[in-house]
Amino acid sequence: MKIRATTSWDTERLLTGRSTRWAGSSSPARIQDNYSENIGNAVAAGLSNVYHALEDRTLGRNLGTYGMLDMWDGVSNLMKEFWPDIHRKIQHKHNQAMAREPDNPSH
After folding, report:
1. What is the domain extent for residue 57?
2. 95 vs 4, 79, 90, 106, CA distance in Å?
3. CA-based, 20 to 30 A from 90: which of 71, 79, 81, 83?
4. For the chain, what is the domain count?
C-alpha cells in the first residue's frame, strides 16, 4: 500500500485504508479479492473455538470473532494510511510546547 504525502483527510484515503481489507491488487488496473486476508481471519476465528467450552462453540460466536478480526484489520489499515499525518500533527504541537517552555535546570 502506498502512503501519499499529503495532509488532507479525504474520502479516497479513507477508502484506500479500508479497502485493502477486502481487495488486494495484482496490478494497478486490476482489483481482486483478498483471499489470504479473508481465509486467514476465518481460520483464526475457527481455531479460537479451542478456548471455549463445547456448548459455546457456535456459528454466532465464530461470526462475531470473524467480525472483530475484520474490524481490527480495518482500523490497523486506516492507522497505517493516516499515521504520517497524525505523527506530524503531534510532533508539531510538541515542538511548539517545548519552544514556549522556559529552560528550567532543576528538572
Report:
1. 35-74
2. 24, 22, 9, 21
3. 71
4. 1
